[in-house]
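[[Local backbone shapes]]
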Amino acid sequence: MDDIADSIAGDWSDADVDAFFGRIKGVLSGSEPGGASGEAGPMAAALSAWRAWCARFRAHPGAAAHTSSLLGQLDLAGAAMALERRWAIGGEPWPGYDRYLANGGLTILYRTWWAAALGVCGPEPARTEHWAAIEPATALGAECMRLANDLRTFERERREGKPNSVLILERAGTSTEAAVERVSAHIAELNAAFDAELRRLPAELAGVVEGQRRSVAFNGAWYMARDTHAYTVRELAEDARSESHG
């Protein structure tokens, strides 16, 4: 669904982003249960994929306890993506580094992913307090991933006119080399804080702790290995075959 949505969002305004997130929240909450009559194309495909996922999500025993948290994260992510779009199209001036990172920690969707993951594979019995417990660590993990992504994509985003932590530091007078070094050092600081927060979580959340540790480590390395923008499932399969035959 994310890949399909990316393919239709190129010319969207911030209002279009808001409208799209309103629809996917409606599907999850049940206020938009079916497809619109006559709807076709990538938008219909994206919403169809999302409806199918929501149906699978609701079948998990923990889903009911965590749907509210997931809706909340979708709301935050949608608002953050709309703001990001305003920055990109000149509707608002680019932010400073700290404000950009706070917003980017939402648009990377790591928080949203883990709000959903609690409903799918979180501890049982599922309790709403589980999200409150993991949210501080999850926020730090999201910022680690955002900055790792930025290091890989800043040259492309320079061409596209999109804000990026490296480019924001450049605009403040920092050289590219120094900006990259500063962002890299910040990732290391965030990773240490992330690990400390994970260590504070109770034993019942041990599976989440291990999952988050692996997720941030893998995705950070993945982002640094290549620009994942428009990296398709087919390309992933081709790379896997190439590795297996190497």
Summary: The first helix runs from residue 2 to 8. The two ends are 32 Å apart (CA to CA).
